[in-house]
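Exercise 7. Given the encoded structure of a 154-residue chain, write a plausible sequence.
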């Protein structure tokens, strides 16, 4: 399933729709080059979940926990960019335990965080030269049945 997002507001709206569908135990991996819109999408996810706290790239702290809001599900936002494939640092975050009671979004998580669960959604973002974002969803496990509900908001 592929979407074209022409503005940052479209990326936020798509993130909101994704966030509204998340529940405790969900793992979402964001893939794409620098500047593709991963953090903007995560801000939308946070809005959709109604979590507290400002969403910014957690590059220097690796992970930020946003307390549960209106949906009752906390958000853990992880940036695996600095891990450079060092899975021991990912293990130190104890995400497999947190995953049971939170929604976890991992930027740069493909190839590292995907081992946390058989059920995960990869969201690939790319930015074209005209600044349009191309979003491709790759569902794994139970996500295969759930992505049909993720339609681009009007």
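Solution.
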């Amino acid at each position: 399933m592929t979407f074209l997002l022409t503005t940052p507001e479209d990326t936020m709206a798509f993130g909101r729709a994704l966030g509204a569908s998340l529940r405790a135990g969900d793992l979402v991996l964001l893939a794409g080059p620098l500047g593709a819109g991963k953090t903007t999408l995560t801000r939308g996810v946070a809005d959709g979940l109604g979590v507290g706290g400002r969403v910014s790239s957690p590059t220097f702290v690796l992970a930020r926990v946003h307390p549960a809001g209106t949906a009752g599900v906390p958000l853990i936002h992880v940036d695996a960019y600095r891990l450079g494939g060092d899975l021991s640092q990912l293990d130190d975050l104890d995400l497999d335990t947190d995953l049971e009671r939170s929604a976890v979004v991992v930027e740069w998580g493909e190839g590292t965080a995907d081992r946390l669960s058989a059920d995960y959604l990869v969201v690939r973002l790319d930015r074209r030269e005209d600044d349009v974002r191309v979003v491709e969803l790759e569902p794994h496990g139970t996500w295969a049945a759930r992505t049909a509900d993720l339609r681009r908001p009007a």
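Remark. Residues 8-21 form the longest helix (14 residues). Students should compare their own answers with the one above.
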